[in-house]
Amino acid sequence: MSRDKALLLFGLVTYGIGQSLLYVVFGPLARDIGLSEAQFGILISSSNIAVVACSPIWGRASQSKGRKFIFIIGLVGYAAGYSLLAFGIQIGLWALLASTPLFFLLLAARLVYGTLASAISPAATAYIADTTAVGERAAGMALVAASGGIGTIIGPALGGLLATIGPVVPMYAASLLALVAAVLSAVKLTEPPRHADRDDSVRVSAFDRRIAPFLFGWFILFMVFTAVQVITAFYIEDRFGVTDRQDVIAVASIALLSMAVVTLIVQIVVMQIWKLTPRLLLRTAYFIYAAVLLAFAYSSSLVALYLCFAGMGFAFALAAPGLNAAASLAVKPHEQGAVAGWLSSAPAFGMVFGPALGGIVYKAAPDLPMIGGAILSVLVGLLYCFIRIPDPTDEDEPVVGPG
C-alpha cells in the first residue's frame, strides 16, 4: 500500500472510530443524561442532515481546491465538532443543564460536526477514483470502506479502555486522533496528478440514471443499518435483560467488534485477492443482508446476536465497495468529484431517517426494525438483478439501464 493511501485510510479510520463510539459510549449514556430514545435518534440523525446537504458541495470543491485540502478541512472539523459533543455529554453527566437546553446544545454540536466532517468521505473517495485503474476500482473502494471497519474495531476497544478513566474520555481521544491525521495529511499527503484537469463547475444530478440506483442502494443500506444500530443498546437491555450500563457497553462493543472484524477480513483480504466485480457484489449482498436481519429479529441469545452482527458485517463488506465502484465506473473521470459527493451524501440521507425511525418503530415492536429492513433489502436486491451494473470487463461505455 502506498504512503498516500495509508494516510487516507488513517484519516478514515479516525472517522470510523468516532462513528462507533456514538453507539458504544453515547448510546448507553443517553438515558443517564435524560435523553429519550427518540431524542437520541434525532441527535444521531441531525448531523446527517448536514452531511446530506454538504457532501455534494465538498465533493465539487475537491475538484478545484484539491482532494488533500478538503480532506484536511474535514478532519479538523470532525475534531472540533466531536470535542464539542463530548463536552456537552459531560455537562449532562454533571447535571449542569436541564434536559431541554442540553438537548439543543448537543444538537448544535452534531450540526457543526456534520457540516465539516462531511468533507472527509467525498475527498477520500474521489482521491481513490483518481488513483486506481478501472480493473482495480472495486478493490480500491473496498479499502476505503474497510477503514470504517478498522475504526469500528478500534472504537469499542478504545471506548472500553478509556471509559474507565472517564465516560467521555474516549471521545476526546478520537478527536485528538483526527487532529493527528490532519497534521500528517498536511505534511505527507500528495495531491493526485489528475487534479489539474478538473474544476468545480462539473455537476452531476443525484437523479442521473447512471448513478441513481447505487445512491438508492446506499440510502437503504444505511437507513436499515443505523435503525438497527441505534436501538441495539435498548434491545440488549430489554430482550436479554442486561441492565448494568457497563455490561450494556461491553455487549454492544462485542457485537460491533464482531461486525467490524468480518467486514475487515472481507475488504482487506478477500476483496484484494479476488477481484470481485460490482455486478456480483450487488446481486448477492442485499439478499445476505435480509437473511441476517431476519435471524436478528428472532435471536434468543447473546451469541446469536454476535453472529447476526458478524453477518451484517459480511453483507456490508460486499455492498459498500460494490456501490462505490459501480457509480465510479458509470461516469467520466472529470465527474468523479461530483459523484463522490453524492456517494457520501446518500448513506447520510439514510442515516437521517434510520436512527429516528429505529427509535420510533422500536417502541411499536422491538423486532420490527429488523423485519422491515429485511423486506427493503430484498427489494433492493431484486432491483440489482434487473438493471445493468457497470463492470470493468465491459467493452462499451458503462451506462446503467435495463438488462
Characterise this structure.
- Mean pLDDT is 84; it is low at 395-403.
- The chain has 403 residues and is an all-alpha fold.
- The protein has 14 helices and no strands.
- The longest helix has 29 residues, at 37-65.
- 78% of the residues lie in helices and 0% in strands.
- It has helices at residues 3-30, 37-65, 67-93, 99-117, 120-131, 137-162, 169-188, 212-230, 232-240, 245-273, 278-297, 302-329, 336-364, 368-385.
- Helix 9 (232-240) crosses helix 10 (245-273).
- The two termini are 37 Å apart.
- It has a single domain (3-188, 207-385), classed as Growth Hormone, Chain: A (Up-down Bundle), CATH 1.20.1250.
In short:
The protein is mainly α.
| Number of E strands | 0
Structural class: mainly alpha
SS summary, helix count: 14
Strand content: under 5%
Uncertain runs: 395-403
**Major sheet size, sense and barrel closure:** none
Global morphology: globular
Q: Specify Rg, calculated over alpha carbons.
A: 20 Å
Number of domains: 1
- Reading the helices and strands in chain order gives HHHHHHHHHHHHHH
What would CATH call the homologous superfamily?
Answer: MFS general substrate transporter like domains
End-to-end separation: 37 Å
CATH structural fold name: Growth Hormone, Chain: A
Overall mean confidence score, pLDDT:
84
CATH class division? Mainly Alpha
Q: What helical percentage do the residues reach?
A: over 70%
